[in-house]
């Protein structure tokens, strides 16, 4: 039997297996507090990923040398395609950072950045789990969390770009694989990121399930049957997206341009303008909220239009 025919090497089967064995039991937990331990482990995995990205910046020279790459690969006869295309690179044209790059992929940058900071649905469930909860304590938790995530995103993106410069791919780990091949440390990092993403899914499902329950069954008592059906439905829909959508970039880009823009830019500004009556529309706060709302509308419409155009272009060119 060829390796292609082995079921455990098929990514779709592995996604379903992990969902049933690991994600579903964690997602069925009734309280969010139990997921704090898995979230801590997920954070440690991402910290490990960040440390490796920073270290690799100082291990991979620019321009990349053939000898280094051959030593990093398991099979010395294997020469990555990336290297074959870039052996003639010079330090002047490939190792100089560019502060802004505009191409067909730039349209995904803003939506993905917007989507990465969407945590609004989890705020109230986390607040309910706090001991001695108060508005001030929740604000401290939010500020520390946002700053920590911003710092991790910034350092990972910065050192990832400064390692490969204009040749960095949309998926950073794939770039390392193209260059280093079967590097043991890189495989461990990929496993750590996989664990981090897997353990994050139940935390994301919790507020989604809570919102659906409050919308459809707010006056009813808790039911394990209803709780399980909603959880399985959300997980099934997620698996369909993972299996049938070509790249995760498309999901992040579309959701970032639509739902994330609504949650971060448009809805908070609209609620502030509508609900805060003590300030006039000419106040600095209301004017700022109005400008924020307008910028959100521009980001949402512009990003979604460009993403759809990119999809149409790729479809006509055979890219999708």
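^ Assign residues to that structure.
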């Amino acid at each position: 039997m060829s390796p292609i025919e082995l079921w455990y090497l098929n990514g779709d089967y592995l996604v379903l297996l992990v969902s049933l064995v690991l994600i579903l039991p964690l997602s069925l937990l009734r309280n969010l507090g139990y997921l704090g331990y898995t979230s801590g482990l997920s954070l440690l995995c991402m910290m490990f990923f960040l440390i490796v990205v920073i270290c690799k910046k100082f291990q991979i020279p620019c321009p990349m040398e053939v000898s280094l790459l051959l030593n990093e690969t398991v099979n010395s006869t294997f020469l990555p395609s990336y290297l074959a295309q870039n052996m003639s690179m010079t330090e002047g044209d490939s190792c100089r950072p560019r502060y802004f790059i505009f191409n067909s992929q730039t349209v995904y940058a803003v939506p993905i950045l917007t989507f990465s900071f969407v945590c609004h649905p989890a705020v109230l469930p986390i607040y309910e789990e706090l001991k001695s909860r108060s508005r001030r304590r929740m604000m401290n938790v939010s500020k520390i969390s946002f700053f920590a995530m911003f710092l991790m995103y910034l350092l990972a993106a910065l050192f990832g770009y400064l390692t490969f410069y204009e040749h960095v791919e949309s998926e950073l780990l794939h770039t390392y694989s193209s260059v280093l091949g079967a590097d043991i440390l890189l495989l461990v990092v990929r496993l750590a990121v996989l664990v981090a993403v897997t353990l994050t899914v139940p935390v994301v499902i919790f507020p989604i399930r809570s919102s659906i329950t409050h919308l459809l069954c707010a006056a009813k008592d808790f039911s394990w049957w209803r709780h399980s059906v909603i959880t399985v439905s959300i997980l099934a829909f997620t698996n369909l997206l993972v299996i049938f959508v070509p790249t995760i970039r498309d999901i992040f880009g579309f959701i970032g341009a639509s739902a994330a823009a609504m949650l971060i830019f448009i809805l908070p500004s609209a609620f502030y303008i509508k609900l805060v009556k003590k300030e006039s529309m000419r106040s600095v706060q209301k004017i700022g909220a109005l400008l924020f709302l307008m910028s959100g509308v521009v980001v949402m419409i512009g990003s979604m239009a460009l993403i759809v155009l990119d999809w149409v272009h790729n479809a006509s060119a055979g890219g999708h």
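Residues 65-91 have pLDDT under 50 and may be disordered.
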